[in-house]
């Protein structure tokens, strides 16, 4: 095992140590932080991020594990990484990467993949489908979508109770109930749609389902699913070639912090509602939805960031754009000449002071609203509530130039939440002192403000980079002094 750690790259070592932390694993010298306290008398556990430690320190920690089960787990993580690298090598080895292989690669390259797909498949009740290194031309490229439902058992763990597999034509290949081998304490009927009566007379076991699934996915088929790792854990099947729809669609500016829900993806990509709020899941519907998403991704791309649809926001609001700071001498009928797209206009409010009013443009779909917003010429900014908006320059009949703002009704950032204390706002109340006034060159003032802010942020980043560089020098010096 030590030889494997010696040849492993730093990224693999960091991955294994982070997983050991997450699982609260302890070697002969304790857990990661406890090990650092004894191993590094100068810094101790003050620099506990594995990514900031040298490979020598990471290997020294992993060498403290002697239990067979721990070593098997580490070996499985390294195998997982090896499979991922092998798939990437094979997809990159051809002149043209197929759309299916590209989505497999995107799944394998996702930051959450090593954590969520590192299964304990070394255990006896798991099945591992081997990834073939040779005879690539004989490997199947067919897509199969999988969805499972799980119940809660008396030991606190989940057990598979229902499984469905559909092919690219949305034909159901497998749809069966599974009898858990433990006592069920919660069927979660409101989520799973499964009750105790549904299992009356069911004799199919997990081992039976594993055998059936293994036959279906033979010759390296690509499994498709939303948060597919949960379904594979329930099936206790480790399969290398997967496409996870929660990974391959971009969400906001940082898809690593929050994954889109299947229902939101259906709304944004497929323009339909998978299920009403509060309705139970349906295995066939969910498997078909995942397959439709992958087929749409292959056909159309959908590489733009998907907006974070807030549960607090009524669905009808997501198809709207708020237009505010509109001068009174600009008729609402002329907004259609300024803003592209097919929409209806509703006047929301007229302000007695400042001579401004607001309006809402309602589109047929969320995609049309976002497409129109993307086409607008303007430097994107955030309003006081954190929503994205663009200032748009318009020429008035008087000959002067004015700036109106077009704002999204959804948030781009996953960490911005809508207050539940008041209804979702349809306009912005802005003090006169914060309004953009109609002047000869308002665009110039707007650009100057942005340039100043960018300069300030760049200065802060430069200072931070200098601090980080100094810390790295200190760490390197201490490391050489200890002979690591």
Question: How would you summarize the topology of this molecule?
Answer:
Blueprint: H1 2-7, H2 10-22, H3 32-39, H4 55-62, H5 68-93, H6 99-109, H7 113-116, E1 127-129, E2 143-153, E3 158-166, E4 172-177, E5 184-186, H8 189-192, H9 206-216, E6 222-225, H10 228-235, E7 237-239, E8 242-244, H11 245-248, H12 262-270, H13 283-300, E9 320-327, H14 335-338, E10 344-350, E11 356-362, H15 366-375, E12 381-382, E13 388-395, E14 401-408, H16 442-482
Parallel strand pairs: 1-7, 2-6, 6-8
Antiparallel strand pairs: 2-3, 2-5, 3-4, 9-11, 9-14, 10-11, 12-13, 13-14
Helix pairs in contact: 2-4, 5-6, 12-13
Question: What's this entry about, in short?
Answer:
With 484 residues, this protein is an alpha+beta fold. It has helices spanning 2-7, 10-22, 32-39, 55-62, 68-93, 99-109, 113-116, 189-192, 206-216, 228-235, 245-248, 262-270, 283-300, 335-338, 366-375, 442-482, and strands at 127-129, 143-153, 158-166, 172-177, 184-186, 222-225, 237-239, 242-244, 320-327, 344-350, 356-362, 381-382, 388-395, 401-408. It is 38% helix and 17% strand.
